[in-house]
Design a protein that fits this description.
heterodimer; A: 288 residues; mainly alpha; two-stranded antiparallel ribbon; 11 helices; 2 strands; B: 355 residues; 3 domains; three-stranded antiparallel sheet; 14 helices; 5 strands; 5% strand
Chain lengths: 288, 355
């Protein structure tokens, strides 16, 4: 019984990490119906960007998060302005194909530079410390930090969307980009901001993932699939739904791994398929 | 001058397209004659090329015409391949007879799982099919009788002597390619194809004209999965060994997508041209490892952004060429001599795709 509670708790914390993967995907889909197939590969790119200063200057990986997030923010904005905006026409396949091509470029580019050795970040005792929460269940300090960071960033993004000028612009463009254009909101710029926010968030997720486990140039697709599953489980148009979806996915994976090691990822996929079958709009959908 | 004084006919063919069809027939004979003069190495290479070409044709049918962007084709390549191993290796069916069963099993798997993936659209459908392929990969990795994660060899092929085996696999691959090419061509010229072309150009408009979009999408998805299953069965009969990571390798979809996008999505000629470019680049960059995929990716992104109709689409609009035309032309011939040379396009520029 206690070990099941433990599995659930670990799953919830893992869900915090997946939320960091997923919010960006949720935002770009919400604002511009963009499903970025290279989402996971950009997340891995962020981890490798952090690897550079960490290895060269012996920097604490946690301190690398902010500059890498800023860099990814700029990269996201430029990518949308220079490349992806050109594909946002009447053909819905174009942005998918473009990001699909980007994902292959990134994966093989990283492979070329860093080879396929698996890497990870070390943060000393912080990475292994745990707090007992009673009943013999320990809670890792670092997974807790990840979860709380994810929750804090969720609050921040929600605030951004509901209370700031750029958030209003993002929501207006999401509802009707042409009418928003008449009000002086430039869709191309807003789309750029949306991808920039998405990229900044996966930068945080990428570095945290690198501290928690290991990563290789091939880690992107798994991250994309987890992010996607969290978004679909949670339901479209709802940021907190995505967060809840990520937690459900995390719990499904740790419970599955409890049943048999190596079954965790499959259980996650199956829970996703079950939600898709019984409630295709997601569990917490706000819009249809 | 009244309309009744005109004589007219409706035709798809142009003199160029008639030549193209005969060229196609001729090249089919050349392909079938390879076992008479080719080396085993050439035949093995050709089997691979033909597998990729058929897979690309299937993906093109699904995405280029049906608007279904799948990145999970490997699910059905894998099911077809594993079905071959189950029937041939474990149930004693002759391997060559087990190959069509691979296609059938893939089609059944596609029909059953369509209940899930068809709940998603657009980009969600794309990633959803990928999740499905991953579920299949993990599931097959856990079946110990099929060798689990490390896979197994097709040892029953040892009962067939080497040259019969090589020629047999080659001829089956050639038959699949020729069959798929002819079938897709005829299919797109039929009522089914008309609906599919309408679907490609506008889903809403097609629906308003009475095209049953849902049924049509399911049909094209199942058909493409059948083709992918055949490809998997043929390919793994040729290489004699299977593992979950090879059978359900995402690179199957990557290759099919790049071939079609670069060649020209939503055209019949595109996959052929794309396969030629794909293998030419692979040959050119053979010594540079991952650079090959980098270059393919970069070319694909450039094509999507700057020439969405692909290389063939560019050639076609630039020189107004059509080797395998689908649209009908109205050819009028009336009393005035200049009438006889005037042609009108009925279907307009639909072939240029949604650019």
């Amino acid at each position: 019984m206690v070990e099941w509670l433990d599995a659930i708790l670990q799953g919830v914390l893992l869900g915090g990490l997946y939320a960091l993967f997923a919010i960006g995907l949720s935002i770009t889909y919400g604002v511009m119906r963009l499903v970025n197939i290279a989402h996971g590969d950009f997340l891995v790119l962020a981890a490798y960007l952090a690897l550079w200063p960490v290895m060269q200057m012996n920097l604490n990986p946690l301190l690398a998060i902010l500059p890498v997030a800023a860099l990814m923010f700029c990269l996201g904005y430029s990518l949308q302005r220079v490349l992806l905006n050109r594909t946002m026409g009447p053909n819905p396949l174009a942005p998918l194909l473009a990001t699909f091509g980007l994902s292959i470029i990134l994966r093989n580019g990283l492979q070329q530079i860093f080879h396929s050795d698996s890497r990870s970040f070390q943060i000393g005792a912080l990475g292994t410390d745990s707090i007992p929460v009673g009943g013999g269940i320990p809670v890792g300090v670092f997974p807790l930090i990840v979860f709380l960071t994810a929750a804090a960033l969720m609050v921040f993004v929600s605030f951004l969307f509901s209370h700031t000028r750029i958030g209003i612009a993002l929501r207006a463009t999401s509802d009707d980009s042409e009418t928003a254009g008449l009000m002086g909101i430039r869709a191309r710029h807003t789309y750029g901001i949306a991808l920039a926010i998405s990229f900044a968030l996966i930068a945080v997720g990428g570095v945290f993932a690198g501290i928690r486990t290991t990563f290789t140039p091939e880690s992107g697709p798994a991250a994309l699939l987890y992010a996607f599953e969290a978004v679909v489980i949670g339901g479209m148009g709802s940021l907190w739904g995505t967060f809840a979806g990520a937690v459900i996915l995390g719990v499904a994976q740790t419970m599955g791994a409890k049943i048999a090691i190596g079954l965790g990822i499959l259980t996650g996929h199956l829970v996703f398929l079950a939600v898709l079958f019984f409630k295709p709009t997601g569990l917490f959908a706000r819009t249809q | 001058m009244t309309v009744s004084s005109l004589s007219y006919r409706v035709s798809r063919n142009t003199s160029l397209s008639v030549v193209a069809v005969w060229l196609g027939v001729a090249s089919a004979f050349v392909v079938l004659s390879v076992p008479l003069w080719g080396s085993p190495a050439l035949m093995r290479w050709a089997v691979e090329v033909m597998c990729y070409l058929v897979l690309a044709q299937m993906w093109n049918l699904m995405a280029g015409y049906g608007g279904l962007m799948s990145v999970g084709m490997q699910a059905f390549v894998g099911v077809g391949a594993y079905s071959l191993f189950v029937f041939a290796q474990h149930l004693g069916v002759h391997p060559f007879l087990a190959i069509p069963l691979g296609g059938v099993m893939a089609a059944i798997a596609a029909l059953l799982t369509s209940v899930l993936v068809f709940r998603m659209r657009g980009g969600y459908f794309a990633i959803g099919t990928w999740v499905l392929a991953e579920v299949f990969r993990i599931a097959f990795s856990n079946v110990s009788i099929l060798g689990g994660g490390s896979g197994q060899s097709l040892t029953v092929m040892a009962h067939i002597d080497r040259s019969t085996r090589e020629i047999g696999v080659y001829l089956i691959a050639a038959t699949v390619l020729i069959g798929a090419s002819v079938a897709i061509n005829l299919l797109l010229r039929s009522r089914f194809g008309l609906g599919l072309t309408a679907l490609r150009d506008s889903e809403d408009a097609a629906e308003s004209q009475g095209v049953d979009v849902k049924v049509l999408k399911l049909q094209v998805y199942t058909l493409a999965s059948f083709g992918a299953g055949l490809v998997g069965a043929v390919y793994f009969t040729s290489i004699l060994r299977i593992s979950p990571s090879a059978a359900f390798d995402a690179n199957w979809s990557v290759a099919a997508i790049f071939i079609v996008v670069i060649g020209g999505i939503g055209t019949l000629e595109g996959p052929i041209l794309g396969t030629a470019i794909f293998f030419a680049l692979r040959w050119l960059l053979a010594d540079y490892g991952t650079w090959y995929w980098l270059v393919m990716g970069a070319v694909a992104v450039a094509v999507v952004v700057f020439a969405p109709a692909g290389v063939w689409g560019y050639v076609r609009t630039r020189w107004d060429l059509q080797l395998l035309p689908l649209q009908r032309r109205l050819i009028l011939s009336g009393p005035e001599p200049q009438r006889s040379v005037q042609t009108l396009e009925l279907a307009g520029k639909t072939e240029a795709g949604r650019t």
